[in-house]
Design goal:
Length: 391
């Protein structure tokens, strides 16, 4: 095992500056698919995540000779859009104290509110030493570039447990998660609900029959490449309906890229009405190692309860049939609670280089975390369950 004195730090301005196989040698063993090279590459190569939109890639890499042994997807940000931890109020508070919150450094899979971010590290090195070297490199870069802070969003929990001694402070946030309690089928899953909500879910599912809509899963090589353009159109139109609250960050090039190069991680649900070969709605999810991640959806026109079926019920049926253990549906409104997704905590990690921001965060974060935990518990009291899940 070679000592860290022989390691070299390099900062990259594009994921394309590192060989895909070298990067994925570190990323593929992780539970999340969102740190793999093709996903990050198509975000950047499409221009969806780029300096034009306030995302400046500054990926940290550590090398032992020509071998990549450590990496961290990092971005210098001039705003907080696309992060989903909603730290705008921290920025407003900083302004009141005359401190500049932006630019800042952010570690995450951009525009993707799903837990799993961590530094990528080779297994055959001293990982504690490597982590220290990487954090020291982050500190040096942020201080030299006069960045106010570094945020690591949606951190992987086991990895996070190693970090407290490294000077990061955790901020708790609320997410949703569905867990497979060894359900035999969808009907078995419905038995966990009280009779009123079980009736409501069945009614929402039957409404698809009323409209003559059938929903079919497509995975891997069964996904037609031409659906990428339709997926983008539906994604764009659905987001447009939310006006100023739209979360439209991706362009058509991103969808074309992942439908071509990343289909081994994709699960698509296509809704067909009548005999038309063109789907009236599409939803896209990611699958890896028994975990399902909901990402985007859209439809040709509004159809009552279509969203619940495309984004919740059809994926849950598929998850049960295919032995999926957990399903992260993404952030959003509490209607997920009434479909069986429990409120859970996720954590973002924060490190400040402006002394005023560091003091403010330290003074307030415990109270903020207590309030968020109370919110999580309040949401879970609304779960319409007749009995506790088996586990």
């Amino acid at each position: 095992m070679t000592g860290s004195a022989s390691w070299t730090i390099r900062w990259l301005r594009s994921i394309d500056e590192v060989d895909r196989e070298q990067w994925d040698r570190l990323a593929l063993p992780l539970p999340t698919p969102l740190l793999e090279w093709h996903w990050l590459h198509h975000l950047e190569a499409s221009g969806s995540i780029s300096p034009r939109y306030g995302w400046h890639p500054r990926h940290l890499t550590v090398w032992k000779g020509r071998e990549l042994i450590g990496a961290a997807p990092l971005y210098v940000k001039t705003h907080s859009d696309g992060e989903f931890i909603f730290d705008h109020w921290w920025a407003q508070l900083a302004a009141q104290y005359g401190a500049a919150y932006y630019p800042k450094m952010v570690g995450m899979s951009p525009a993707t509110p799903s837990v799993g971010y961590r530094f990528l590290m080779a297994e055959d090195v001293d990982q504690a030493d490597l982590m220290r070297r990487m954090i020291a490199a982050v500190d040096q870069y942020c201080q030299e570039e006069r960045l106010s802070c570094c945020h690591l969003n949606f951190a992987d929990a086991p990895w996070f447990a190693r970090l407290p001694s490294q000077g990061f402070t955790g901020w708790r946030h609320q997410s949703y998660l569905w867990r497979n309690e060894n359900y035999r089928d969808f009907e078995d899953y419905l038995q966990v609900f009280n009779s009123t909500q079980r009736h409501n879910i069945r009614r929402e599912c039957r409404r698809m029959e009323k409209y003559g809509i059938e929903i079919h899963p497509l995975i891997g090589n069964d996904i037609p490449a031409e659906l990428a353009a339709l997926m983008y159109r539906y994604y764009f139109n659905t987001n447009a309906s939310y006006g100023p609250w739209a979360a439209r960050f991706l362009n058509s090039g991103f969808f074309e890229g992942i439908f071509r190069d990343y289909r081994h991680r994709l699960l698509i649900f296509a809704a067909h009405a009548g005999s038309s070969p063109v789907p009236v709605a599409l939803s896209i999810l990611l699958v890896k190692d028994g975990h399902l991640i909901g990402r985007y959806w859209g439809s040709a026109e509004p159809v009552k309860d279509l969203h619940f079926n495309m984004c919740f019920y059809a994926p849950i049926r598929w998850a049960i049939d295919n032995g999926i253990r957990t399903f992260d549906p993404g952030v959003g409104s509490p209607h997920k609670i009434y479909r069986g997704f429990q409120a859970v905590a996720n954590t973002s990690l924060h490190r400040f280089y402006d002394s005023r921001l560091k003091v403010l965060f330290a003074q307030l974060i415990d109270q903020v975390n207590e309030m968020e935990q109370a919110n999580i518990e309040a949401l879970n009291r609304q779960l319409p369950f007749a009995r506790k899940p088996r586990s």
